[in-house]
Structures are given as structure tokens and as C-alpha cells.
Amino acid sequence: MNTNVIVLNGGSSAGKSGIVRCLKAILPQPWINMGVDDLIDRLPPSMLDSGNGVSFGQGGEVILGDDWRAMETAWTKGVAAMARAGARIIIDDVFLSGGTDQERLRGHLESLNVLWVGVHCSPEAVEKREIARGDRIPGMAALQAATVHKGVVYDVEVDTTHAETLDCARAIAEHVR
Amino acid sequence: MNTNVIVLNGGSSAGKSGIVRCLKAILPQPWINMGVDDLIDRLPPSMLDSGNGVSFGQGGEVILGDDWRAMETAWTKGVAAMARAGARIIIDDVFLSGGTDQERLRGHLESLNVLWVGVHCSPEAVEKREIARGDRIPGMAALQAATVHKGVVYDVEVDTTHAETLDCARAIAEHVR
Amino acid sequence: MNTNVIVLNGGSSAGKSGIVRCLKAILPQPWINMGVDDLIDRLPPSMLDSGNGVSFGQGGEVILGDDWRAMETAWTKGVAAMARAGARIIIDDVFLSGGTDQERLRGHLESLNVLWVGVHCSPEAVEKREIARGDRIPGMAALQAATVHKGVVYDVEVDTTHAETLDCARAIAEHVR
Amino acid sequence: MNTNVIVLNGGSSAGKSGIVRCLKAILPQPWINMGVDDLIDRLPPSMLDSGNGVSFGQGGEVILGDDWRAMETAWTKGVAAMARAGARIIIDDVFLSGGTDQERLRGHLESLNVLWVGVHCSPEAVEKREIARGDRIPGMAALQAATVHKGVVYDVEVDTTHAETLDCARAIAEHVR
């Protein structure tokens, strides 16, 4: 059975977006990406910086409210439906609650053939890359690097600390059926 | 029954994106947008400028191949599933085949409460706005202005030729239940 | 003597950027743009949201500190030097202090042939356009619409309230030698 | 005498932009950046993809015409004037003609205290990063990696192949007076 969905989980600045671009360029079949940032980008103003939606603390922590949870559930069900209808989807996500988030996502992706990918990067490196990107909330990257992989089970894991993004993507692509 | 989906149909440079931003700002409930451009933006390189995917002719015409059709169908089924799962969705689209495209979309949105909106703008004005935007293929706007509304049936129609974007959005918002 | 510099003055959301893109597309000679926003975009983080640099009040007011003044003076002298060296430059600016700002800029542009352009738009329209753009500080547009033209003398004036951007650019282009 | 100008020279995808962002974040004084890409970004449509302006060959080569040369000279004189007027400027450039380009730039920067920085990266790594960025002309990065440093003399050199961007910036910052 062919792979329908690739899930990339990793903290902020770990290098997920670059891996997504590489995968789309090197995989022989057409893949599209639908990540958690894509949902955040299209939230209405009332759901940003609000306790019910998505807001960000001073130290880089992400605070998710009830309206976000409802919206994210509907979004994820829709992404799963796209995959069931034949689209190959790369989901890049940040499992703030680690294994608990994986289980919830696994539930939505039932009956699909999912490749679970861990994107690691050392806290020291993500902290430096956060500064180099210039548009990120300081502290978020290091905070997430330590926690998003807790209790998560992967089919393949890559580490961008010392490897080029394209090489990480190639390692992942070998597992795509 | 509440409105689940707002479909905005109009040619390039007619002002759909501005109306989407206004609707998200003024509607009391949270709405997210999922337009045809959002799908194009996430296509892999192999599907752009290719006969099977999406390509653009010298005169501004859009050429859609079989791979695009398959991808768009899966995408639309997913968007409909998001709405059925409780997300309020604004779809901004360009019905290149007019009423035929509406019927296909209507099929995907079955059981949902859809508000169909026509976004008009004179061919002269869109041609000028295309130049003012600077990043568009010359000719596309005028070409589409004439054809995308053929055979399409609307619940509400707005014309951005002489009206401010926000005023068009307000006129639409009055029809949202 | 040929026009070396076009100065566009108008408040936020009055439509200056669109006019700049149109002018660059329709003028027969090559023109480049160097506006106040281009300087703000390249300020270091320490000069943004700081009392010494550029910061923004709750009501949309812009607060300029001493470091900004020094930086802006050096920037403007450099832009004038580009024009003296043969580059045709479009400066789009917001004269927060009206005529006083014009006199200071006039001093920097000595010996150059400057076309002074006023870009008007009604406070009601800019307020609506600010919402349609979605990424602006609410209130800034209306606040500036009322004040940036005070005591400023123009060679040509356009009003984007009811006119297309391209038509405004064409009216300006007729005055370029 | 304090450093007025930092010149970063390196090929496409070598990591100059990230170093620029880091330098602006870590240097105690305010610095602004004015690179060759900033000029290209503001060229009128008539100078792009034209033999007189800037165009790009199939293999990633950059072709510069006479109009570009005139514009670049005026631009560079203006940037030098900004620095002479007190602004601290980071110039990121691609010396397509190596040492010849350095000599021309050195002429424009006379009387200023310039820190010349070489930004190296292996051809293998830039080729991979070009794919990961997704919006670059294939081949340009590897082509430039081999040639832009020929005959150029530096005050400090960094290599982004195995080092984090921020660490490269810190090494450069130690040389800024």
C-alpha cells in the first residue's frame, strides 16, 4: 500500500519547512503540504492573541484555547479527507503535547498509510537559527526542542543539527512507498 | 440553519482577497479561507508550468491538466469535510468554466449551507489593477472578467469597480446567517 | 532639465505603493523606488519598538526618536546622491509634520529637479482600506490622512478615493520631463 | 576609527542574508543593510529579463547589461554617501567578476573604513541549499561558489558549510570596531 501521508514533527526552527520543500522537489509523485502553520496563517484576527484562539507567552510558549481546538479538529478531519480522496499530503506539525498529540492525529488519520517522521535538532542550534531567521519569538525554539518528541513513535528520524536539509529529505524519501 | 461556506467567484484582480480579509475581520464568528490560489501555492514544482498541472499561456489564459483536476477534486472534498466538521470556510475561486464549475463545486458541498457570491469588476478596471499589482500575468484579468460569471447563479453580487472593498464585504455579511 | 526625483507624499493606505508600481511600469525611462518604508524595513531590531527609533502608539500614531532622525538624514543624503549620480528615484514618504518635512527634504534634494506629488484619499476610504489590507495598525490611516498635506506645496495632486491607481499614475507621468 | 561599512561577498545560497540578520541583532550599534538584491528588487519591469538590465541564463548564469551597470554605479555611490553621512551599512554582494568587482567597489567606498568579509560555502552544500529554498534558479549557487572569491582580499573569512549562521556572524562581529 502506498504512503498517503507524511507527518513531520519537530520544534520551531528545526528545519521542517526546508525538508517539506525538498520532499516536494524530489519525490516522484505530486505531494502538497498542509501544516499547522498554514491553519494559523488563515485564522481571523479575533483568534490571534486571544485566550480562546492562539496566543504566545513572553518566554516563547504557545497558548491554545478552546476555539483553536475546535478549529484544528475540523481542519485535521478535512486534511484526512483530502488524503482519502487521493491527494498525497505532507503534514508538518509541532506536537506541543508530544505523544498525546500523536495519538489524537493518529485517530484522525485512520485507514491512511502514514509515515511518521521525527525532525530533531539540538536546542543550541535551534536557538541560534531562531536569531538568524529574525522573525521568530525568542525562546520558542529551545523550549519546543526539548518537549515535542516526548512519547512520540517514529518510522524514521532525521537530525538537522549537522546534516543538510536535502540529505534529511532524501533519508525520508527512501521510506516513502 | 447557519451558513457553513461562503463561495466568492470572480476573475483575477476583481478584489476577492481584500473581501476575504474584510469578511474575516467583520464577521462575528471565526471564518478561515481556503481558495484555489492556496492550492496552487502548495503544488510541487513538477505540477507548475507543466501540461499535466497548471500552466499559463502568453495571453493570460490558464491551462489545467489532468493531474490538476485530480488534485483539485481531492482538495475540494477535504475543504467540504472541514466545513462538515464545523469550520466556517470562505472559498475564493475563479470559475474558468462558469456555471459548469459551479455545478461541480455544488456537488462537493452537498448538505452544507452555501452562500454563493459573485464578485464583479469591469474589464477596464481589472486591467488597470493588474498593472498596479505588478506581479500578475498581463491579460489574465480582462480575459477572466468576461467569462467567469457565465451561467453562474448567485445569492448576492457585489461590484468592486466603484465600491470600497469593505463596503462589498458588509453587503455580503448581511446575507450570512 | 529632466526630472530626477519624484516625491509622493500621502498618508498610510492612500495608495502610494500602487502608484509607484504603475509609474515604474509606464514611464519610458528606468526608475527605482526608495521610500521611508524601505528604511523602516531594514532597521535593526533594537530600533523598532524603541523610544530612540520608530515605535507605534495604540491609536496609530508614529513616534520617532533621535536615532531614527539621524538614520533618516543619512539615508536621505544617500538617496539624493544616487539621484545626482544619474539614477531616477521615486521617493514615497509620509510627511507626518507636513510642510516642515517637505522643507527638510527639499534641502537634501538641492540641485535636483524634483516633481512634488500629493496623493490624497478621503479619511473614510483610507479607514476602510486599512481594514481590507489586514496588516495595518488600526487608526493610523485616518490619523495621517488629515495631517500629512498641511503646508505642503505640490506640482501635481491626485486623489485615489474614486480614481484607479493607474489613472493617478498616468496623471503624474504627464508631468515627468 | 570605527567601521563604517561591512561588505559580505559570497555566492548565492552561501548564507549571506542570515548573517546580515544576525549581525543586525548582535552588533551594539544600529546597522542597516543595502545589498545588490535590494537594488534588483526595485528595478522596473523593463530592466528585468532584458539584455540591457539583468537577466538569467538557463544554467544559472547572471547576465548584466549597460543599463544595469549605470544603475548599479549610481546606487553604490548613494550607499557610500549614506555611510559618509553616518549610517552604518552592511553591503551583501556577489562579486561575479571577483577581484575586479572588489576594486570597483573599493573605489566607491574611498575614505570609509570597510571590513571585507568572505562568506564561503562548499559547492556541494550550496547546491543542496538551493533546492531546499525552492525559489532559486538551479545551478546558480554552484556556479557562483567557485568564482566569486577569485582575486578578492578579505579582512575576515567565514565558512557556513559546517558552522551555524550565528557563529559566523559572531566571528565577523569581533572584527567590527
Descriptive account of the structure:
The structure is a homotetramer of 177-residue chains. With 177 residues, the first copy, chain A, is α/β, with parallel strands linked by helices. Chain A is built from 7 helices and 7 strands, in the order βαβαββαβαβααβα. Chain A has helices at 16-26, 36-41, 66-84, 99-108, 123-133, 140-145, 165-173, and strands at residues 5-9, 31-33, 54-56, 62-64, 88-93, 114-120, 156-159. A 5-stranded parallel sheet of chain A has the order 2-5-1-6-7, with helices on both faces. In chain A, α1 (16-26) crosses α7 (165-173). Chain A starts with a strand and ends with a helix. The mean pLDDT of chain A is 94. Chains A and B meet through β2 and α3 of A and β2 and α3 of B.
Considering the chains and any ligands shown, give keywords for the structure.
homotetramer, 177 residues, alpha/beta, 5-stranded parallel beta sheet, two-stranded antiparallel ribbon, 7 helices, 41% helix, 18% strand
General shape of chain A: globular
* Total DSSP E strands of chain A: 7
**Widest sheet of chain A: strand order?**
2-5-1-6-7
What is the largest interface, and how many residues per chain?
A-B, 33 and 33 residues
Give the helix proportion of chain A (percent range). Answer: 40-55%
User: Rounded to an integer, what's the Rg of chain A over CA atoms?
Assistant: 16 Å
Compute the separation of the termini of chain A in Å.
Answer: 7 Å
Low-confidence stretches of chain A: none
The average pLDDT of chain A is 94
Task: Give the count of helical stretches of chain A.
Answer: 7
Return the string of H and E elements of chain A: EHEHEEHEHEHHEH
Strand count, sense and closure of the main sheet of chain A? 5 strands, parallel
Helix/strand/pairing class of chain A, anyone? alpha/beta
